[in-house]
UniProtKB/TrEMBL annotation:
<protein>
    <submittedName>
        <fullName>DUF1289 domain-containing protein</fullName>
    </submittedName>
</protein>
<dbReference type="Pfam" id="PF06945">
    <property type="entry name" value="DUF1289"/>
</dbReference>
<dbReference type="InterPro" id="IPR010710">
    <property type="entry name" value="DUF1289"/>
</dbReference>
């Protein structure tokens, strides 16, 4: 059984940029939504969506290395798009 994906939050939590966090690009609603996702496949799909959102918004190059460290620390397999 795949390990639970850690939250995409990297602990910055400053909501600017039209309500998006400057650390991970999630809105407050998206952060709440992620917490409700129980199946690893849904969590992984959400993180993939977030990667695309960050690419569209720009200026989130700091997130991927921080999230990779978080995944490795928790023993979760990071999304293929980050490796």
């Amino acid at each position: 059984m795949p390990k639970k994906m850690p939250s995409p939050c990297i602990g910055v939590c400053k909501f600017r940029r039209e309500g998006h966090c400057i650390g991970c690009s999630m809105t407050k609603t998206q952060k709440k939504m992620y917490k409700t996702l129980k199946k690893p496949a849904f969590q992984r799909a959400f993180v993939d969506f977030l990667i695309h959102q960050q690419a569209a918004m720009g200026r989130f190059t700091h997130w991927a290395p921080a999230y990779l460290r978080k995944c490795r620390k928790k023993g979760a397999v990071p999304p293929a798009a980050l490796e």
